[in-house]
């Protein structure tokens, strides 16, 4: 298992930075290694990534999320397993410190022979830079999800979010 | 292609040991063999290679979800789906000549197997009052007959509009609209007979009637329960999802009265290890439960979890979740602690140690999914059982979280979508108000008849007109003798069908066969080529495009038949553009988008690869119950015991069967060949009841009305069923299920848990065949 930590200060307020980070489907717009993100539901996303010749997919669960504060994820299945936390701390002059902490576990022989953490660290650093460039350039978020997640369970900010307006009558 | 059989096939019953694995290369061979008996190589290639693909034909078989676009195999179907689709794509045709040589009284003596093997219906036919023959009729005259019957009724409630789960969303929406403009909510459907108990239990406890899981959840669960279901035969593609879950490290617990092959091991024919290797073990633990003991099992497990929490506070239950998202925990908890262990052990037939092993599996698992099917829903206490499963999931927060959830596994491709489209006899006012606002008519508010109540009303002479959108109602319904008498009391029965079945032979005074396009066939209307949409068990709504040339020039689509009927029968009632609907199904979807929540922008969104995934509110953190929380419930049960000398019978499908239609008389996985009139009995019960292997018996069910219900000409086959529990094929044993024997709350017929005695009879040469061909029922 290897651990990574990367921090970057961005020139927008915490709520702007956080709100933008909840818009996963927009990540391919500014992240170079992310080709597609499917939001299966608030707590489950499916990521397609490409880095050089490497292509991959994984599903991830967000198991903790607090607006304007942090979110924590872990991968579902897939190799290598990874998880971590993104936190948002306000800094003076309406700026935000974004910190990504991540652990990667490559099981078996592959884990002994390779150390992917160096590569992942470089990718994370670059993508945080991309995020900074994007959100500072726009100056405002493209959308927001203000619900929270605790232990994998979603707590919507409103009693009935629009997405849950679906047929609820008994289905035989 | 082989020619259709002229007579019922004469076969002898042979038996062999049941298989302990499912699928593998034999599944591919059997699928191809059956397909090529039905039609040509190019048509088989077209159906199979477009089946379940993004722009292809949705399998008309089960409602299991497809993998995401980009993750589908080139061959994305199972043996039974392949057989089913080519059963529809068959090159065999039924013409007017066929009906000239087969009077209705002859057809009524034939088995559904034989009727189905005759091929596709090609032109509208009528059996006029007093006649014993179907004869050709023009579509125009057929619609005129139906319109005149409908307009002559004393009340709109004298008409019944039945839907099978094959119908597309568009056809289902138009059917319910037609019925409601006509003035009735009499919209029974096949859901009434399959997962009605799931809908009621989930709606009450979680605020949604639909399952909460997607394939992601199955793939990433730590523990999966398969309760009262047989994936190897009824939802074979579920085995691929289970295989993926197992490879990801999941454990599986199967709960069943029979050790079905598909619960034990799966050889995936798309992978080398499935072709030459042992495949993947499915069940890590098999709970060989007594029929109907599932409620007691989950109550016992729930009690164990509560006691484990007492012993190790704060480590077993998800208190945060229980506190913030549920209600009724304290009352549930008090009630659960009063469950008597001896009752649990008697009801389940399991040992305490087995249940403790299950508990330990649960305690080791952070993510649990429970799948179930008709082994649960068709029990008298089906609704309380599913509520108890919900209790079990709620206790450890196994709902609304990745890798967790409740999964009612549905058996017909659009059974869920038809309900979403409003085919239900009890639709809420919110839906009816939306219909009124969109179309400017006042829909009836009084609840209509479900399947059981419709049969009762028919029997009492209260129903004059019966229209069936696909399906084989007479055979699917319980209490066959009663249902058949009831159907014969109707003045006019009409069936929108692709193939012949028993419901065409057991019909009203006047009867119509309205031949329709199958899902495999190109559907060309005046605005151009059409597609339809369907919704799978995991709430994904997607397109289905027909690919084959239709079986006859005279076929009309289901939508066209309903729209033309509406134009003739509802002239002047409400301003509904039936013409436009027939020309362009997009116009129907456009109206659906105004009425049904979650379908906004339907036409555009459904055209995207993979279609629309309807969110499940539970996964959004929303419980749409009256209190806004999930409900723990207290569920009482009565010990069901067969009196001495009796067994508890459950109905089941064979592997070579789709719903009411057997393709052959074989059941490969269970080692049965040549006959379906077999009753599977535990060898110890055979000895105790003084019966013998191969003995000829009649099955006689016992019910409080003291009416004798008898299914004759069966043969006893020793089988490892749970002690005291027997099994026999559906629909041959539907005759044994009393119409009034229904599940509490859901009113679903109880095709499980039927108390029967086995009466030895003198074996007569050929008696089994006489029974097979429908003469003895």
Automatic annotation (TrEMBL), chain A:
A Pfam family that the UniProt record links to this protein: Polyketide_cyc
Source species of the chain: Streptomyces reniochalinae
Give residue ranges for domain Coenzyme Q-binding protein COQ10 START: 10-131
Q: Which SUPFAM superfamilies match?
A: Bet v1-like
Q: Which positions carry the signal peptide feature in this UniProt record?
A: none
- InterPro entries linked to this entry: COQ10_START, ORF3, START-like_dom_sf
Q: Where is this region: Disordered?
A: 152-172
Highest rank taxon of the organism: Bacteria
Q: What is this protein called?
A: SRPBCC family protein
Task: Kindly list the residue ranges recorded as spanning the membrane.
Answer: none
TrEMBL record, chain B:
Q: Name one GO cellular component term.
A: membrane
Gene Ontology molecular function: any one: formate dehydrogenase (NAD+) activity
**Which segments constitute the Molybdopterin oxidoreductase domain?**
120-493
Q: Which InterPro entries match?
A: Asp_de-COase-like_dom_sf, MopB_CT_YdeP, MoPterin_dinucl-bd_dom, Mopterin_OxRdtase, Mopterin_OxRdtse_a_bac, Prok_molybdopt-oxidoreductase, YdeP_MopB
Q: Which domain of life is it from?
A: Bacteria
The cofactor named in the record is: Mo-bis(molybdopterin guanine dinucleotide); [4Fe-4S] cluster
Q: Which family does it belong to?
A: Belongs to the prokaryotic molybdopterin-containing oxidoreductase family.
**NCBIfam families from the xrefs?**
Fdhalpha-like
Q: What is the recorded name of this protein?
A: CbbBc protein
Origin species: Streptomyces reniochalinae
